[in-house]
């Protein structure tokens, strides 16, 4: 078996050819979205995120309206879109890679994936994913909630932009659905960044039908890993490197966008958000993971490994700084963090109804199987307490 540092060197080598003073060339992206009738499938935009390859994506249908066509025309006029073509069977769009964040909100706006299946069920849990998440985030928890009598309403949204628009959507839809189904009980389960989306939605509402907000690994105090983008969330780069997953190096790039800024430890925007209280009817349940990939007695070894990589390859100062952040991040230490968020950050809200720490990784908080459903069972137990207290169902 090759030493770990050899694998890291091999994985880093293409990127290290780019020096700090050289511009990074922008790739051209061409996406073809299938059209059926007057709808288009936007799942390819989810496929742009590293966590969900297009082959794994299920269709996400949106209406192809006059407004959509007009928006595409404006995007081309503004040179955001290079070319586009609409036929009876597909929508073809060509654009520079750095323009994706301007296009996604137009063609992939916030939505509830399975809203057509909701017919006024008694109990609904709204599932909100986090950074680099999507419709596959809750592929295990969603059916598990349904099996326990909770209809899982899955929300998707452009996951590397700001939280304002998805929060506005969530707030508005909850109000609309509550007016139509006043007897339904509502809860929200939100992973990582999704917890801040839910907080913004609830704190902005004059009133809400939501009785419970459960956050899974939400970085209320930020995360030093915010600059890393991974296959599902902020980062679990260390565990993937140590497992010889060379694809992990794809995450070692500058974090960009409003979501990244919000998650940094010194974000004033996040601090201002959390100064706004949740409605008193909402019970907050905090879940944190402590299953970081680096054992405490391996910290020095791991840091030394990173330093040897830097010394041998002499990368740009910016890239070396990123590696050193990873080497010194408490988020990746077992018992301290989950690989992306520390326990302290995930439980940084003093006024909460309940909290629990599980020996899980950041993405492991979302896992459910026959032998390990402790997170699910704990959440259900908290919701049952509210039922027993006589809250609206």
UniProtKB/TrEMBL annotation:
A matching Pfam family: Abhydrolase_1
Signal peptide residues on this chain, from the entry's feature table: 1-19
Superkingdom of source: Bacteria
Keywords: Hydrolase, Signal
A GO MF term: hydrolase activity
Residue ranges of domain AB hydrolase-1 in the record: 124-223
Signal listed as a keyword: yes
Alphabetized PANTHER family for the sequence: SLL1969 PROTEIN
Name the UniProt record assigns to this protein: Alpha/beta hydrolase family protein
């Amino acid at each position: 078996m090759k030493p770990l540092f050899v694998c890291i060197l091999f994985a880093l080598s293409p990127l290290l050819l780019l020096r700090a003073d050289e511009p990074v060339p922008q790739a051209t992206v061409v996406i073809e979205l299938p059209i059926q009738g007057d709808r288009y499938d936007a799942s390819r935009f989810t496929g742009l995120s590293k966590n969900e390859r297009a082959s794994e994506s299920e269709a996400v249908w949106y209406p192809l309206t006059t407004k959509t066509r007009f928006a595409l025309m404006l995007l081309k006029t503004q040179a955001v879109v290079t070319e586009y073509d609409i036929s009876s069977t597909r929508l073809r769009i060509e654009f520079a890679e750095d323009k994706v964040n301007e296009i996604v909100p137009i063609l992939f706006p916030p939505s509830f994936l399975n809203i057509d299946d909701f017919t006024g069920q008694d109990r609904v849990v709204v599932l909100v994913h986090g950074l680099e998440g999507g419709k596959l985030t809750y592929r295990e928890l969603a059916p598990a909630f349904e099996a326990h009598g909770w209809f899982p309403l899955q929300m998707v949204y452009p996951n590397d932009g700001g939280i304002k628009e998805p929060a506005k959507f969530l707030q508005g839809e909850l109000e609309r659905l509550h007016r139509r189904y006043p007897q339904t009980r509502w809860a929200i389960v939100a992973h990582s960044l999704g917890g801040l989306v839910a907080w913004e939605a609830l704190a902005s509402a004059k009133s809400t039908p939501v009785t419970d907000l459960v956050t899974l690994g939400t970085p209320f105090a930020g995360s030093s890993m915010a600059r890393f983008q991974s296959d599902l969330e902020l980062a679990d780069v260390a565990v993937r490197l140590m497992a010889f997953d060379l694809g992990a190096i794809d995450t070692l790039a500058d974090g960009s966008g409003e979501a990244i800024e919000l998650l940094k430890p010194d974000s004033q925007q996040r601090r201002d958000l959390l100064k706004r209280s949740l409605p008193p009817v909402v019970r907050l349940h905090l879940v944190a993971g402590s299953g970081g990939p680096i054992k405490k007695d391996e910290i020095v070894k791991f840091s030394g490994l990173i330093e040897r990589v830097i010394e041998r390859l002499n990368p740009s100062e910016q890239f070396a700084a990123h590696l050193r952040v990873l080497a010194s991040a408490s988020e990746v230490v077992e018992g301290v963090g989950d690989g992306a968020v520390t326990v302290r950050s995930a439980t940084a809200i003093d006024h909460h109804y309940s909290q629990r720490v599980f020996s899980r990784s950041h993405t492991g908080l979302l896992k459910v199987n026959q032998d390990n459903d402790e997170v699910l069972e704990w959440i259900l137990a908290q919701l049952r307490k509210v039922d027993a207290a006589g809250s609206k169902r």
